[in-house]
């Protein structure tokens, strides 16, 4: 078997990411649903799966 590098071949692809600052997980899921329902190049909703992850911010510090 020949591969193009030291990593296993994969069909997965990260096409991009979007960071949003929201007050709740529900709002983040609403935005993800709207993004997935956006029309693609042919006008049909893209309906691609979107993964929602929480990103931890820096802790508040008093300087």
UniProtKB/TrEMBL annotation:
Signal sequence extent: none
Protein name: YCII-related domain-containing protein
Family: Belongs to the YciI family.
InterPro entries found in the cross-reference section: Dimeric_a/b-barrel (IPR011008), YCII (IPR005545)
Domain YCII-related, first and last residues per copy: 2-37
Domain of life: Bacteria
Native organism: Rhodococcus opacus
């Amino acid at each position: 078997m020949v591969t193009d590098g030291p990593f296993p071949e994969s069909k997965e692809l990260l096409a991009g990411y979007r960071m949003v600052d929201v007050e709740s997980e529900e709002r983040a899921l609403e935005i993800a649903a709207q993004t997935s329902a956006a029309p693609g190049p042919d006008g049909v909703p893209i309906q691609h799966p979107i993964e929602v992850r929480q990103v931890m911010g820096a802790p508040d510090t008093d300087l």
